[in-house]
## 1
Amino acid sequence: MTPSPQNPQEQERPLDAAAADLGAGGATAPERDAAAYRRRMERRQQVQQQRVQARQLEKGLRLVFTGRGKGKTTAGLGLVLRTLGHGERVAVVQFIKGAWIPGEARALAVFGEQLRWHALGEGFTWNTQDRERDREMVNRAWQQACVYLSDAAVKLVLLDEINVALKLGYISLETVLAGLEQRPPLTHVALTGRDAPPELIAAADLVTEMTMVRHPFREQGVKAQAGIEY
């Protein structure tokens, strides 16, 4: 009987284990003489090269940034800047936000038509005080997002605070998941905001949860400041 081909992930696990066993080096390595340390790091380099060579798949990714801590939008905008730096087109669609122009939008304006930025919210629910208006704005933002999600010329689409729109019930999870399925094969999409639903997390390729340990507003009464919050 011919053995079934090994799953590529199963083939890669020994390399991952070897990398973990060899460690990251520095003071964590047990060797104390330079020659022994160099041998360990040479082996670690070989294993890392094999790990990279074994993983050559390219695809459009779903990236979710969620959690109670700061930095979710900032992480998404880091992807925006990196993608723009490679000469690719990017679209940012902001849900909920839009009552003010953030510093990032001003700074990234230098990229001109390479970046399309749409702030299609009107602020926090306690400021807008109008559920139907909020729902209408979310629908407008989603329709605009779908234009970019279906455009193969757009390398990255950032859906900022869409997780909040999902949590508030202004758009259905089924609608969002179906829209993400319409992307061209190499288009990435990043979704930010607190309380990403479990189904979205399960469908994502990368999920990062920001954890709040300390916050100056909560512990010290420090207001939102330019360059930090907006």
## 2
Amino acid sequence: MASFNQRLLQAQRKVSSVLCIGLDPDLHRIPRHLLSAQPEAEAVMAFNKAVVRATAPYACAYKLNFAFYEALGRRGYEVIQHTLACIPRHAVAIADAKRGDIGNTANKYAHAVFRTLDFDACTVAPYMGRDAVAPFLRYADKAAFVLARTSNESARDFQEIPCGQEKLFHLVARRAAAWDKEFAGNAGLVVGATSPTALRELRALCPQLPFLIPGVGAQGGTPEDIAPAFSGPVIVNSSRAVIYASPGTDFAERAADGARQTRELLAGLVPESSQEAADQ
């Protein structure tokens, strides 16, 4: 059974890309011609399928933000399953669910994401401590990306609070690295592109952990901002800038253009030593 990290590396080699496409289907931004022809759930399915098919040559991963699917009501779960079925086998699927609870609740969350839905990874909130994260780390073939320094404007409200000689997000990263060693080596960090300083600090603290990096594109992060993270494994997410590149009937083609251009920009950041190692 291959580990998540092994399958991620295989996916990145196959398409020569570290790009993750965020599938966040906002009914206010999905092309009108899709919504006018069918019910909302079917429109989202058609939108996601077209975007995935168009961007598959350029993406190593797809990330589904659960909020956009839960907002669809009782059919949201069905749309998630349909979308997962559309994702090519070479790519990894990430549940952006930000789960974080204790005891049997965390166990059920992990089972739902990893076994019922069969995602490859899940974002996890560490505020409640080890027992909120551990159930996700016990799946040897999956990964848990722990929220460390996120990309939103208010991230500093708590994440940058001093804890002794370091900030809270530093402590979270250290604990995640310790959990990674304790379990199956399948922990990662969510580190936003909008704080290049924090990203550099976290890469220095955790040189080997994979980083899931949101915030490139619509949130203002640039490829140059995230360059320091590329000394270790990375997955760089872009959502709105790719999937909403056009509101018209050419939305899939424009999404493909955006994905291809982003892949090319990111490829220039991969160190030559990393590229050579991946080729071996």
